[in-house]
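User: If only I could read backbone structure tokens as easily as an amino acid sequence. Those tokens are not coordinates but codes from a learned vocabulary of shapes. Could you go through the record with me and say what the backbone is doing? Here is the record:
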Amino acid sequence: MFCRRRNFSFPADFFCPDCPICGGVRLVEIMLKKMIPAVLGLCLVFPAAAQKFEAEDGDLYGVTKASEVKGFSGSGYVQFISYDQSCVGVNVDVAKSGDYAVVLNARNPNEDRRVSLKVEYDDDGFVCAQRLPYSQKFSQIYVNSGVFLDEGGHTLYITGLTGEWQLDSVEIKPLTSAISRKISPPAELVTKNPSRQAATLYKYLVGMRGKGILSGQQIYAGTPEIKVINQTTGKYPAVLGIDLIDFSPSRVEHGTRSSVVREAKRWWDAGGIITCCWHWNAPKDLVNQDVEGKRWYDGFRTGATTFNFVNGLRNHDSEEYRLMLRDIDEIAVQLKSLQDADIPVLWRPLHEASGGWFWWGAHGKDSYIELYRMLFDRLVNYHKLNNLIWVWNGQNPDWYPGDEYADVISYDSYPGERNYKPLHDELVLIQAATAQPKLVAVSENGALPDIEALRREKSPWSWFCTWNGDFVRTSKNGYSGKFTDIDTFKKFYENDYLITRDELPSFR
């Protein structure tokens, strides 16, 4: 901060409350109050004070006051019950408009059960949702996002999402640079010694959190969707989505070929970003009947294969295990090709698992998590791939494999035709997967979300990626309009909160 009275710079973590000239308090006044002589006539700045509010004094909705567990402040604490919408409203008064951190003094004694909450303010402001770490005693939990509060009164709403836990008090603290680092996603990727390009891209995404959302588009073969977007808006999306589906060995056996890795390299050379998924056609045991959804090329679907990957996980001498490694190794070849070209990849494997419609999600969360970790180990530790930014997309927080296996958590959103909801509930859902701050993304979407609402809320979504086909284009490669009408589509790409390819920095 800069004091105009004496041309003196102060640290950004401090502020001056009252001075009629520069917004600060004159040193003479302060020092006299402290009975210390002063003659400099400078404006002095002081740390903004934290404010603490007892939860039991707030407005209680579906929660109860208690005092059995020791270590609380005030007259007690608030007991949250194990269903959604138990809530405490805490009234706070802010002396100066600015960015603040919210700190909960909370206790989560449920070591084996997921406990999560969300924090909102006033009637329609959203701060964050997150998982509570296990703790047998009351301890400080920083909410994983800051909030801008205008001077005056506000109500903070702390709502329990899952599990039983206790809340003792709530603090608000000025958002210093040190606290900001504490509540931001980790500075390092989960892959040790990542490529310089991967680290640079990740740093950019972390720095852009809440400042803008990257536009994205999924392709299958060629780039007709990209051409339609450019013809309709005059711009290119920032992110190109590719799928390694046709590199699955059980599809290659039927003659499939793919150009998507080549398209990815062209996109990178043009200044864009790559995200990649893999509809993993089951290694064997394809139903392959001439029935909708059961043909050989549907082998990633639960109904199109009898492949039992659990047997492979349990028995490393089994054919199932050997074939899973074979398939992963073939995909590693394609990812290595991108690594050799110095291209980082937003890598989203084993997606939408909790839905159960893909075979990797057909045997429950524990088996899925074990498979996900096996895939991670094979690609990172065996194949030494260091260009991957790992994007977890299990859809259900209970299926989260752990903070050490994901850099980004994402959600696939298909709300229906021309439904432009801003994805608030979806954001709450996936943020509640982790206690550690993580980047979040809309990794697939049908209709586009309300970009203006995202801008107003400074939504932390890092990117969206509209699916291919009639979500964007007609069979004759005109703009479809089926899911997002053309006027909304154009306004979306014109919005200042949206980042297109021409607005990206170089990640080279």
